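Subject: for your reference before the review

Hello V.,

The reviewers asked for a structural picture of the protein, and I figured it would be easier to keep everything in one thread rather than splitting it across files. Below is the amino acid sequence we used in the manuscript, unchanged from the supplementary table.
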Amino acid sequence: MLGTRMTIVEAAAPTPTLWMLTIVAAIALVVVGPAMALLFGLAQRGRLEHL
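And here is what came back from the structure prediction:
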C-alpha cells in the first residue's frame, strides 16, 4: 500500500455518488442554515436567556 501511486481520478468515487453527496449537503445547508441564523439572532438579542 505504501509507495504505490494512485491518481485522483482513480481514487475518486463514481460520479453518481459525488452528485448525491452534493445534493445531500445542499439540502442540509438549506435546512440547518436558517435555523442557525435564527439562533444567532435570538442570542444576539438576549432572548435565549429566558429559556
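For the response letter, the relevant points are probably these. The radius of gyration is 20 Å. The chain has a mean pLDDT of 90.

Happy to draft the paragraph if you're swamped.

O.
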